[in-house]
Amino acid sequence: MYLVWFSAGAASAVSAKYAVKEHGDDCRVIYCDTGSEHEDNKRFLKDVEKWIDHPIEILKNEKYKDHWDVMEKTRYLIGPGGARCSVELKKKIRIDVSNIDDIHVLGYTIEETTRASDFDERNEFTKTYYPLIKNNISKSDCLGIIWKAGIEIPAMYKMGYNHNNCIGCPRGKAGYWNKIRVDFPEAFDRMAKLERELGRSINRRPDGTKTFLDQLDPNAGNYKEEPPISCGIGCQLAMSDLT
Question: Is residue 41 included in any domain, yes or no?
Fold first, then answer.
């Protein structure tokens, strides 16, 4: 069975389209509901479900309401092993629903070839398939493909975010958090208070010293305001393959 992990992002949507076209009923397309993503993701999921002509299963770790609940209950933000919320709300679900012979379809793009290789090295007993890398598809190609398919891109992309993660992701850097400060001030304030409560910071200065969000220079970081949408040869070839 191909387990196609849909994250409500453009890349995972196009990856799902490729997987379903290639493997049809041998696919399970799965969305891990973190409880913390933008409300518009529900609309995007339904649009993608129609586009790929395949049901998308919605699974949730009922132990936690959202990523804030994970961080507050476990008293853990992020460390060398990554974010605890990702483990609880996504990784554990993947482990629970998968069998040893399943092939995990992940939406890494051509820019993320090294990241995909790193994933395979860390998970040597997990079978993986990367349709976007196989087809030389970039992040901007994915946005172009979604646009040409007549699907409205997720709200977070329209707001200028490069990913469609939980609102207030602990993996975000200074530029991301300064954008969150403007767009979602309640999430910024909540994380700033949680940092102080736990005595842990999610960001560091260039010299390596930690800096709390309530100390963050509003001009720090450089978060790109507009996601690039490609409709070049890569997008055109992909649309020919997918229709």
Answer: yes
Q: Rounded to whole angstroms, what are the CA distances from 93 to 11, 17, 228?
A: 20, 22, 32
Average pLDDT of the chain, as a whole number: 89
Q: What is the DSSP letter of 191?
A: H
Residue 203 in any domain: the answer is no
Answer yes or no: is 48 within a domain: yes
Q: For position 227, what pLDDT does the model report?
A: 43
Q: Domain containing 107: what range? A: 2-137
Does 22 fall in a domain?
A: yes
The domain that contains 96 carries what CATH number? Answer: 3.40.50.620
Helices and strands (DSSP H and E) totals, the chain: 12, 9
Question: pLDDT at position 209, please?
Answer: 75
Q: Kindly report the number of other CB atoms within 10 A of residue 208's CB atom.
A: 6
Instruction: Note the pLDDT of residue 211.
Output: 86
What would the pLDDT profile of 173-228 be if each residue is shown by its tens digit? 888 999 999 999 999 999 999 999 999 999 876 666 788 999 999 988 777 653 44
Alpha-carbon dihedral sign for residues 89, 81, 27, 116: positive
Token pair for 12:
């995972």
Nearest to 139 by CA among 227, 31, 51: 227
Residue carrying the six token digits 């994915």: 142
Residues in the chain with pLDDT values less than 50: 226-240
- Fill in the DSSP letter of residue 152: P
